[in-house]
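Late entry, evening session. Most of the bench is empty. Finally got around to the prediction I had been postponing all week. Sequence below, unchanged from the version circulated by S.P.
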Amino acid sequence: MRFSVVGISHWESEVSIRELFYLDKDRKKRLKKYTKQVPSGVLALETCNRTEIFGFCEPKILVKALCSSVNIEHSLFEKHGYVLSDNKAIRHIYRVGLGLDSQILGDSQIIQQLKRAYNESKNEQLSGEFHQLIQSIFKAHKRSRTETDFGRGNASVGFEVTQRALEHFKNLEDIKILLIGAGKMGKVSCKNLISNGAKNISVINRSFDRAKNLANSLDIEISSFSKLEYEINNADLIITATGAPEPILIPEQFTNIQMDKLIIDLSVPRNVAHEVIEIDGITLIDMDSISKVNQKALEKRKKAIPILENIIQEEIKAYKSNIDRSRFLLPHIKEVNRKLDSITEEELQKVRNKLDPEIFNQLEKITDRVKKKILAIHIDRLDQEYQKVEQDA
């Protein structure tokens, strides 16, 4: 069965397009409904830079499911989206998992986002082949970090937020910073700011408990959503990183500006209304403009790319070999196991009524252990047969 991916990413589409395909909680529920007939299950990867759906099925099924889930015309996807199948799709998901396809090369967050998507999809009964593919990607990612310099150095969205803040303010010690959103992106950005001298940081989140947990872990202040406008007007730097489907910063909230402000919007969909940038004294940076990274770290990562490509090729080859092996072995193993079950069950039935129940129970356990040992011998023999077939081919 062919493997396919359909998606929208920063390579082809601006944030104004990407946010139209954003999969919020309700849209993910609809996606499950539209893909429930895919026997292998599907995996939906959602980040600030991409929305992608992977599955062992025809790509048109995934395109229709995505467009239906977000209520977007198919023609818009054709203009801005992409479709990959078979080897190209498999290679793509490896490159995504290793950070080769990220806006910031080697982004360390993407593998965690892939793991989260995988954990969500596991509940939807992914096929064994799908599980093997994702586990192979995790192995390739681990190798990319242990065998190369690809994961070293500062080249992340959190680091870039700090760089932009330092460029704008020069010194972070005396400025007032407002973080809206207590998720991972906000937390990483906050940690980077603190390590570069920021001391006056407040966090606001719709879930007060989540904001409180973040504030306690980083020793920063906490404020309530009811004070949002007050906090906006008192902050020098505002960072938004929420999953809100609509803008939460609008022009009407900036009526009492007493100072220039830098706003960094890390959210997709965007948290800041486009009209805000037209207000005097406001500098707005969104995900599309975050492209500069630590050049030294980036150069190290670029040098590692050929090695990573080799790692991907090796792991893809190993993955396909494991799939071929499973397809060869499983039918035979099932047949041997069926025959063993039939033989042992027939023999046990002959003595069931002749033995004490406790003794019969012990006999069943012994029989089961013997059966497993016999099965292991057959599996080893079948594996040798498979290796010989591979060598002869």
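Two things to note before I forget:
The first strand starts at residue 4 and ends at 9.
The radius of gyration is 27 Å.
Will write this up properly tomorrow.
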